[in-house]
Amino acid sequence: MNYPNLHRPLYGADVLANALNNYPDIALLRQLDGPTLTVRDMRDETSRYIQALESVGVTSQSCVSMLASNLPETLHIGHATSMIPTLMVPIHAMSSLADQLTIVRDAGVNVLIFEAERFEKAAADIKAAEPGITLLSVGPSEIAPDIRKLAASFEPKKLVPPVIDGDHIGRRSYSGGTTGKPKAIPSAARSGQQCAMIIQAEWEWPSPPQILSCAPLTHAGGTMFMPALLKGGTFLILPRFDPLQVLQSIQDYRINCMMLVPTMIYALLDHPRFDEFDLSSLETVFYGASLMNPVRLKEAIERIGPVFAQFYGQAEAPMVLTYFRKADHDINDMNRLASCGLPCPYVRLELHDADGNEVPDGEPGEIVVQGPLVMNGYLDEELNKEVFKGGWLHTGDVAVRDPNGFLRIVDRVKDMIVSGGFNIYPREVEMVIAAHPAVAEVAVIGVPHDKWGEAVKAVVVTKPGQEVAEDDLIAAVAQAKGSYQAPKSVVFVDAIPQTPVGKPDKKALRAAYPN
């Protein structure tokens, strides 16, 4: 028997094409300023953009990036490139030109699609530095043809997903570069589809989900589209994160589900008009991408409700290594609120010491994982020797497992501070400082010290209209964790720098505070 397609797995483009043929008249994509698109509209636009891209020479050999806010075209183009299929390389629109060029050059991006209204200058700067790149604009532009206008000129056709295997690379992401040069991370079709299936199976979705997306659609925000499509829900896109607009939209559209990074949650809680809005429609707020202050998480649960669910992963094994269910958030247990939940049943996860041995409960160990979710490897083979040491993906995150199996990440391996021969995990210090009622955000770093090797420095943002003395914070850490973990200095700032994906940028902090 020789039927090559009989057991061929379905990957992202297959599922997308099938789902876009079901329930064509259901309202799917909502916009604040624009029409609501049905499932049929989304299917037809995907077809039009496939034809438009192919008409200007985009093929399966192309490498495409986008500079755009949360427009419908961001989704249309993303879907179209998965069907062609091209290599898609996400570039964060708000990152620096230098960082954008690093990715463009490393990946060999040859097609850049940009939002004309907001990013024409950025696209022009990239073109000036890399003259060989082809520019396409979304909207009228003086420097590139309008792909939106071109797509409108085509009649929709049947969607035909590509025949690919599990090792096909349709996306290449880049690490945040918080500890050095960003690493190129090819994402295999197998990994992407495994992630999508776990999200569908394990996460707590309202029925049907009425989703608000304000995170970048070119990054994690885009993962919320397929659940809306597959579960018969709607997907409201906001151009960007604006706290007041998010609060207003939750109330007006009776949003019951959204994904936020912790800094977004803090901004909502701290908005002076927060209490004016009816947020009772919310059923699930997924949060992740960086560790959340447990004190602020308790505040969020008390003010919004028991609707918070955390996901944990990384580009090398995306989003679903662990899941922290809503009901497991115990507001009377700060250690529990500092957890990232339980390991996902669909991955093999252990905590290892430096010699590759499992650590007992209560002892810190690096999270290591195996399974089809894991990336094939970095492009740099030298990096692979370390990250796959012992046959496991080493995440670089250090965690402690409690007797009930819940994991609590204590820090990144590379962020650990060694002071006077003692290992200090900044996350542990941050939790103590964050407990002070005047503290809104805190980041702890190690700085060089002549005597101790490294010293602990805390960078603190206070809540609006509140103050706290440096000595009080130092004393609180000394009492809770011992004097050797207490900060030697505290700096008060208006805001902690963030990476493009919403994590505290400790590399930038170390550069700003070298001692």
Describe it for me?
By secondary structure, the chain is α/β, with parallel strands linked by helices. Among the domains are: 39-164, Rossmann fold; 416-512, GMP Synthetase, Chain A, domain 3 (2-Layer Sandwich), CATH 3.30.300.30. Helix content is 31%, strand content 24%. It contains 16 helices and 24 strands. The strands form six sheets. Strands 2-1-10-9-11-12-13-14-15 form a nine-stranded mixed β-sheet, with helices on both faces. Strand 3 (63-67), helix 3 and strand 4 form a beta-alpha-beta unit. The N and C termini lie far apart (70 Å).
The biggest beta sheet reads: 9 strands, mixed
Q: CATH topology of the domain at 39-164, which one?
A: Rossmann fold
CA radius of gyration is 23 Å
The CATH architecture of the domain at 39-164 can be given as: 3-Layer(aba) Sandwich
**Principal-axis shape:** globular
Content-based structural category: alpha/beta
Low-confidence stretches: none
Order of strands, main sheet, comes to 2-1-10-9-11-12-13-14-15
Approximately how much beta-strand content do the residues carry?
15-25%
CATH class of the domain at 39-164: Alpha Beta
